[in-house]
Amino acid sequence: MKVLVFGLGYVGLTAGCCIASEGHQVVGIDVSAAKVKDIAAGNSPIHEPGLQQLMEAALADGTLSVTTDVADHLKDADLALVCVGTPSSVDGALNMSYVAGVSRQIASGLAAVGKGRSEKLTVAYRSTVQPGTTDRLIRPIFDELLDGTSDEVVQLVYNPEFLREGSAIKDYFHPPKIVVGTVDAKPNPQMEELNANIDARTFWVNFPAAEITKLVDNSWHATKVAFANEIGRTCLSVGIDAKQVHEVFVSDTKLNISPYYTRPGGAFGGSCLPKDVRALRALGSEMGTNLHLVDSLLRSNEAHKFAIFQHCIEGLPAGAGVLLVGLAFKAETDDLRESPNVDLARKLLEAGYKVDIFDPCVDAEMLIGSNLGYAYSQLPMLERLLVDKKTANEKSYDRVIATNATISHLSLPASANLIDISAL
């Protein structure tokens, strides 16, 4: 198939490279000329294990190309994947401006093509959206620009992704499930071909059921993290070993479901969980339902961030030197968006501590887009704070704070005053 991927961020670029590796012809489309230029030159704009190699192979094989202009590609494309961002608005609802913009771009392009296509184009959305978006926002755009003939020209699909940063390529080929929303909840041939080599249960559902899936899943993951951290800081306050409590808790795999997202440790963050919790909360407010637990998740997470900060500075004199190991919200990624570790770094600086930061995956000069914007809005002096491995190993610090598995990159002396947030 010829597959167009709109939006070359974490989801779009990863999906595009994975699809290209299966022999499909992929055209990546992004509004950022700088990003397109970097990718075309073989430089991945994001850090994701295995992505650079996958991208280089696809470019070399000719199965992946990138552009800023959809041009004539709509004439013979079989499938268009929309993977643009949907950041949180002020009220917590999702900002649909990028989704609307790309929808207009595709619809206008199809209108210009006219009758040059012999079959419908499947347009599949992977951006996180509120339930009802396909019917109330996307379909009307296509109807307007195609003079009410959208059903004859396109088949709309909503196909949420379940990629975890740090293991996105593995997750693409081995997802927990495949969810595809269509107008009649019936299979779509292009989506079947796209997922032909993926061994996972497929759910064919209507649009709203598919659209809410991502919000429900990520809000559940956030619930597990917040619950575990409430137990963790309670144990910490009364002198109980939370690691032992966690060991007992996760041994019950029959009733307690699984150990994932349940280990007491750092606050949740990143580009998905906080945003999707806000989105589900906004939906509950709009519908008049009382989502008390969901309403409490972000407040609980902020309380946990403050508790972590207090724990980290306990007994630490003013002006002391601190090494923060791990700045991204998760090891083996460079994503700083809503990272609780960025918040911790800011709190330490505001409290007057001398802070160095070591994260092998974060390069201040390589940050782009919303990742760059968030990083420098929170830590404008980021480039000065980052230190290399040699400095982190050799310099003497009054306290070392490890936020994730990144600590394994260092060879610190046994005398290091280490606090491991990831295992309270």
UniProtKB/TrEMBL annotation:
<dbReference type="InterPro" id="IPR014026">
    <property type="entry name" value="UDP-Glc/GDP-Man_DH_dimer"/>
</dbReference>
<comment type="similarity">
    <text>Belongs to the UDP-glucose/GDP-mannose dehydrogenase family.</text>
</comment>
<dbReference type="InterPro" id="IPR017476">
    <property type="entry name" value="UDP-Glc/GDP-Man"/>
</dbReference>
<feature type="binding site">
    <location>
        <position position="337"/>
    </location>
    <ligand>
        <name>NAD(+)</name>
    </ligand>
</feature>
<dbReference type="GO" id="GO:0006065">
    <property type="term" value="P:UDP-glucuronate biosynthetic process"/>
</dbReference>
<comment type="pathway">
    <text>Nucleotide-sugar biosynthesis; UDP-alpha-D-glucuronate biosynthesis; UDP-alpha-D-glucuronate from UDP-alpha-D-glucose: step 1/1.</text>
</comment>
<dbReference type="InterPro" id="IPR014027">
    <property type="entry name" value="UDP-Glc/GDP-Man_DH_C"/>
</dbReference>
<dbReference type="GO" id="GO:0051287">
    <property type="term" value="F:NAD binding"/>
</dbReference>
<feature type="binding site">
    <location>
        <begin position="162"/>
        <end position="165"/>
    </location>
    <ligand>
        <name>substrate</name>
    </ligand>
</feature>
<feature type="binding site">
    <location>
        <position position="35"/>
    </location>
    <ligand>
        <name>NAD(+)</name>
    </ligand>
</feature>
<dbReference type="Pfam" id="PF03721">
    <property type="entry name" value="UDPG_MGDP_dh_N"/>
</dbReference>
<dbReference type="InterPro" id="IPR001732">
    <property type="entry name" value="UDP-Glc/GDP-Man_DH_N"/>
</dbReference>
<protein>
    <recommendedName>
        <fullName>UDP-glucose 6-dehydrogenase</fullName>
        <ecNumber>1.1.1.22</ecNumber>
    </recommendedName>
</protein>
<feature type="binding site">
    <location>
        <position position="128"/>
    </location>
    <ligand>
        <name>NAD(+)</name>
    </ligand>
</feature>
<feature type="binding site">
    <location>
        <position position="165"/>
    </location>
    <ligand>
        <name>NAD(+)</name>
    </ligand>
</feature>
<feature type="binding site">
    <location>
        <position position="86"/>
    </location>
    <ligand>
        <name>NAD(+)</name>
    </ligand>
</feature>
<keyword id="KW-0520">NAD</keyword>
<feature type="binding site">
    <location>
        <position position="275"/>
    </location>
    <ligand>
        <name>NAD(+)</name>
    </ligand>
</feature>
<feature type="domain" description="UDP-glucose/GDP-mannose dehydrogenase C-terminal">
    <location>
        <begin position="323"/>
        <end position="421"/>
    </location>
</feature>
<feature type="binding site">
    <location>
        <position position="30"/>
    </location>
    <ligand>
        <name>NAD(+)</name>
    </ligand>
</feature>
<dbReference type="GO" id="GO:0003979">
    <property type="term" value="F:UDP-glucose 6-dehydrogenase activity"/>
</dbReference>
<feature type="binding site">
    <location>
        <position position="330"/>
    </location>
    <ligand>
        <name>substrate</name>
    </ligand>
</feature>
<dbReference type="InterPro" id="IPR028357">
    <property type="entry name" value="UDPglc_DH_bac"/>
</dbReference>
<dbReference type="InterPro" id="IPR036220">
    <property type="entry name" value="UDP-Glc/GDP-Man_DH_C_sf"/>
</dbReference>
<feature type="binding site">
    <location>
        <begin position="261"/>
        <end position="265"/>
    </location>
    <ligand>
        <name>substrate</name>
    </ligand>
</feature>
<dbReference type="GO" id="GO:0000271">
    <property type="term" value="P:polysaccharide biosynthetic process"/>
</dbReference>
<feature type="active site" description="Nucleophile">
    <location>
        <position position="272"/>
    </location>
</feature>
<feature type="binding site">
    <location>
        <position position="214"/>
    </location>
    <ligand>
        <name>substrate</name>
    </ligand>
</feature>
<dbReference type="InterPro" id="IPR008927">
    <property type="entry name" value="6-PGluconate_DH-like_C_sf"/>
</dbReference>
<dbReference type="Pfam" id="PF03720">
    <property type="entry name" value="UDPG_MGDP_dh_C"/>
</dbReference>
<dbReference type="InterPro" id="IPR036291">
    <property type="entry name" value="NAD(P)-bd_dom_sf"/>
</dbReference>
<keyword id="KW-0560">Oxidoreductase</keyword>
<feature type="binding site">
    <location>
        <position position="269"/>
    </location>
    <ligand>
        <name>substrate</name>
    </ligand>
</feature>
<dbReference type="Pfam" id="PF00984">
    <property type="entry name" value="UDPG_MGDP_dh"/>
</dbReference>
